[in-house]
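It is worth pausing here to work through a concrete case rather than discussing structure prediction in the abstract. The textbook approach is simple: state the sequence, then state the predicted structure, then interpret. We follow exactly that order.
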Amino acid sequence: MSKVSTKPYLVRAIYDWCLDQGFTPYIAVAVDERTVVPPGYARDGQIVLNLAPDATNHLVMGNDLVTFQARFGGVAHALSLPVSNVLAIYARENGHGMAFEPEIAGSEAQPEEDVSVEGGSGPGDGEGPDTPSGGGRGAARNHLKVVK
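Step two, the predicted structure:
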């Protein structure tokens, strides 16, 4: 029997926690050939996206993929993010959330660790509520640290 990863469940749990607390859930994703995001928004092979209900449409957080529609520069795009590419999910306001070890395609999932993002601001601050973050268009990068 195949071992099911805990990662999609943890991603959904942190997302729900963010919403319950009134925070804005942000997700950091490694961009590769399986990741569908608008061209030009990924930086250094990664993208950070706002997953708040007012920034997304038709959000589905499955065990293999996170799919939704979002606006970039006023233009709607369909996004598809492999759960295996999720690097972190956290609250923009306080940086609390969870980071994950990068997974290599076809390998076993790595153990998850609780993290705190130093500094409350994330890439894309100051953008409209319907615009997900573009992953660092001139904004300061977040620095993750392990919290034991």
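Step three, interpretation. The chain has one domain: 7-130. The chain is about 10% helix and 35% strand.
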